[in-house]
Design goal:
Elements lengths: L1 H21 L6 E9 L2 E3 L4 E9 L5 E10 L4 E10 L4 E8 L5 E7 L2 E8 L7 E19 L5 E6 L3 E8 L6 E6 L5 E2 L2 E7 L2 E9 L3 E6 L9 E6 L2 E6 L10 E13 L4 E11 L2 E7 L9 E5 L17 E14 L2 E15 L3
Parallel strand pairs: 2-8, 17-21
Antiparallel strand pairs: 1-3, 3-6, 4-5, 4-7, 7-8, 9-10, 9-11, 9-24, 11-12, 11-13, 12-16, 14-15, 15-19, 16-19, 17-18, 19-20, 21-22, 23-24
Length: 349
């Protein structure tokens, strides 16, 4: 009898034990809605990667969010842990600041998307103003070593370019750039640089011209004096007198691509400063015919009224001077000196 009762009791208890053993609550996680904001950024900026994590299980638990970032030059794993109760959802974010340009594959929990990183837009926060040259002159002085310099002056050729001006004023000035890719100029022909030899020269910008536009009173001294002593150029800035508002000065890494009538071609680098103030260059080369040669000119500041803001996008005259000694030219050593006067005005779009 007791044996039978014992078996009946076991039979009653057994199902209860099975339910308890098979129905233990557990956490279960789902990952969704992978986002990148913004999904296209400059290389110097930061993107925010976000993903939603939901606990769809019956118990709280800990979930490790692994974010994989893969690019051509960078690979990185970003990790966060979250604790979620049953039925709870949260958004997990990662900050990512790329160091290289290109596309990055972003992967989290089986989801993936692309972040595109572009080169820095140096012109962000600036006004873009198309300009054209309306007049001016180019003066070139050539001296075969031991011979008296030949000086030629021609009209500045037609040219167009874009000037970028910062919308922000810092210490009474705005940053200003001339986009080198936008600078398009016609070549000029200089006759008889050496007896019977003509030269065609095309002026370009090797890199963007970079400088400051002074819009406050008594804030800018934009005069430039350079001295070339046997090829070693020293440049002095300012004459200790503040120039008028609208004055500007830029470092202008230029290049003269020259083609001569005897069939030769050569390129002359000209790292000069362009200014609306005074520019002068003197050559000191004892024993050479160009010794003591001086070129100087004065520009005109940007006008105050007539465009986006005072002194921004108005007419002006930009000048520069420079020299280069002991250059090789059609088999001879040559010294040369130059001066440019460029009258400019904005182009109505």
């Amino acid at each position: 009898m007791w044996r039978i009762l014992h078996l009946l009791l076991l039979a009653l208890l057994m199902p209860t034990v099975l339910v308890v053993g098979c129905g233990t609550p557990a956490a279960e996680f789902q990952v969704s809605n992978l986002q990148i904001s913004p999904d296209v950024i400059d290389v110097t900026k930061q993107a925010v990667i976000s993903v939603e994590v939901a606990n769809v299980g019956d118990a709280s638990g800990i979930y490790t969010v692994n974010c994989s970032v893969g690019g051509e030059f960078e690979n990185e794993s970003l990790v966060q842990q979250v604790t979620l109760a049953s039925g709870q959802t949260c958004t997990v974010t990662f900050d990512f600041a790329p160091e290289s340009v290109g596309d990055y594959a972003i992967s989290v929990g089986g989801l993936s998307t692309i972040l595109t990183v572009t080169p820095t837009d140096r012109y962000s926060g600036m006004w873009k103003i198309p300009y054209r040259v309306t007049g001016g002159q180019i003066t070139m002085a050539f001296s075969l070593v031991g011979m008296t310099p030949v000086v030629n002056t021609v009209e500045f050729p037609s040219a167009t370019f874009d000037i970028y001006v910062s919308q922000t004023i810092v210490n009474g000035s705005r940053e200003v750039y001339i986009d080198s890719d936008s600078f398009v100029s016609e070549p000029v022909v200089i006759e008889d640089i050496i007896a019977g030899i003509d030269m065609e020269m095309l002026f370009t910008l090797r890199e963007d011209a970079v400088g400051l536009l002074y819009i406050g009173g008594n804030t800018g001294d934009v005069d430039v004096l350079s001295v070339d002593t046997d090829g070693a150029v020293e440049t002095q800035f300012g004459d200790d007198l503040m120039d008028d508002p609208g004055s500007a000065m830029m470092f202008s890494p230029s290049e003269g691509q020259s083609f001569v009538s005897v069939g030769q071609h050569f390129t002359v680098p000209m790292d000069v400063y362009s200014t609306t103030g005074t520019s002068s260059n003197q050559v000191i080369a004892p024993g050479r015919k160009m010794d003591g040669s001086l070129l100087e000119c004065r520009g005109v500041p940007f006008a105050e009224n007539g465009s986006i803001a005072p002194y921004v996008g108005t007419e002006a005259t930009i000048v520069s001077t420079g020299s280069s000694l002991d250059r090789r030219f059609i088999g001879f050593r040559v010294d040369f000196q130059f001066m440019t006067v460029m009258q400019i005005e904005p182009v109505e779009e």
